[in-house]
Write a structure and sequence with these properties.
Layout: H1 4-38, H2 46-78
């Protein structure tokens, strides 16, 4: 017969492992079902696909322009400022 504390710790470890595995599997199944319901429906026509592609290209173009603007602003901000001309005080 095993000491009572040793059997409890073994049971706790086995229960934790089994609970983690079962909980993980259930979590994956539930997450897949939830995301499956919220997925957008596929576009049925080729015209819709072309329209989506054009919209995507426009968004990419806008992002590229914004990136260039930010780069220009960063370049201007990192340029050293000219030192102020020292004014000679009259004696």
């Amino acid at each position: 017969m095993e000491p009572r504390g040793d059997g409890f710790s073994k049971g706790l470890v086995v229960g934790t492992l089994l609970g983690g595995v079962i909980g993980g599997v259930l979590g994956v199944i539930i997450a897949n079902r939830m995301t499956g319901e919220s997925r957008p429906k596929a576009v049925k026509s080729g015209v819709g696909t072309a329209n989506l592609r054009q919209n995507l290209e426009e968004k990419i173009s806008q992002l590229n322009e914004t990136i260039e603007q930010v780069r220009d602003q960063l370049a201007q901000a990192s340029e050293p400022e000219p030192a102020p001309a020292s004014v000679a005080e009259p004696s």
